[in-house]
Design goal:
The chain is an alpha/beta fold. Helices cover 50% and strands 15% of the residues. The chain has a seven-stranded parallel sheet with strand order 3-2-1-4-5-6-9, sandwiched between helices. A two-stranded parallel ribbon has the order 7-8. NADP nicotinamide-adenine-dinucleotide phosphate binds next to α1, β7 and α6. The site of NADP nicotinamide-adenine-dinucleotide phosphate has 30 residues, from α1, β7 and α6.
């Protein structure tokens, strides 16, 4: 029996990870800000799968939140074997339309929290000679897409770099790069989705299934789904300024909330 800690576990991709890992028999530590929602989810997963579920309410845009999750990762009596750094969000607006404080909050959650939690988790995993970290990035990492894309590009570079450093230690790290997934993400950000073609949408449970297979195979980068594998292949060949235009026309409509 192993234990997995998932940040942003109450909705979307994080909730899909929680369902999948619970059904595989892992104990869970669920992290998000909304404590009531965390407790409801914990009860449901415990009742359905008979696993132990801890809830850890924390805001990863704050020092206290990062420290609280870090303290759980340092616990030696019930170590965390798999960390899923998934919590994240989008912004409503292009650069200069978003207050710089909000851009910094995004970097705190997407980059600083991911760095600090990975650091703490991996230190214990290396000592135990086993463990895994999945850092949820995005295909936006591969196109010019404001602070969001830049933060996710950091997640990819960081994760693959650490995976290389820890090769042979028994600890696996993988950056997961989803395309558009039907979750609460776009509604929370106030981003309109009418211009995103139906074929571009992915299902969160299938995404997680593919991600877990890629982790088992020892990949350090996972781009689930053949559609997005092809698109990211083409992106490598296209000029950067052209990519910026396409990226802005697809999925970046800052419509009414
Ligand atoms: N949906 C997509 O199309 C898509 C595509 C590529 C990558 N991604 C990435 O996938 C990850 C998950 O996104 P999602 O689509 O599943 O979004 P979602 O449905 O909006 O879920 C976001 C989760 O993160 C938690 N969260 C947000 N801010 C937090 C904070 N400051 N501290 C702790 N928890 C926080 C939320 O719970 P609380 O509000 O209770 O804290 C919620 O559980 C993100 O990193 C996102 O960038 C999403």
């Amino acid at each position: 029996m192993t234990t997995a800690l998932i940040t942003g576990a109450t909705a979307g991709i994080g909730a899909a990870f929680a369902r999948r890992l619970a059904s595989d028999g892992h104990h869970l530590v669920l992290v998000a800000r909304d404590e009531k929602r965390l407790r409801e989810q914990a009860t449901e997963l415990h009742d359905r799968h008979g696993i132990e579920v801890e809830v850890l309410p924390a805001d990863l845009s704050t020092e206290e939140g990062i420290e609280a999750v870090g303290a759980r990762l340092e616990e030696r009596t019930h170590p965390v074997d798999l960390l899923v750094n998934n919590a994240g969000f989008g912004h409503r607006g292009a650069f200069l339309d978003v207050p710089v404080e909000d851009e910094l909050t995004m970097l705190k959650v997407h980059c600083e929290a991911v760095l600090r939690l990975t650091y703490t988790a991996v230190a214990g995993m290396r000592n135990r000679g086993r463990g895994g970290v999945i850092n949820v990035a995005s295909v936006a990492a591969f196109v010019p897409r404001g602070t969001y894309g830049a933060s996710k590009a950091w997640v990819v570079q960081f994760t693959q770099g650490v995976a290389h450093d820890l090769a042979g230690s028994g600890v696996r790290l993988m950056a997961l790069c989803p395309g558009f997934v039907r979750t609460e993400f776009h509604e929370r950000a106030g981003v309109g989705t009418d211009n995103i073609p139906g074929w571009m949408w992915l299902d969160a449970d299938r995404l997680v299934e593919a991600a877990m297979k890629d982790l088992d195979r020892g990949k350090s980068l996972s781009v689930p789904d053949p559609r997005y594998k092809t698109l990211t292949g083409l992106v490598k060949l296209a000029p950067r300024n052209m990519l910026g235009g396409i990226s802005s026309r697809t999925g970046r409509k800052f419509g009414p909330r």
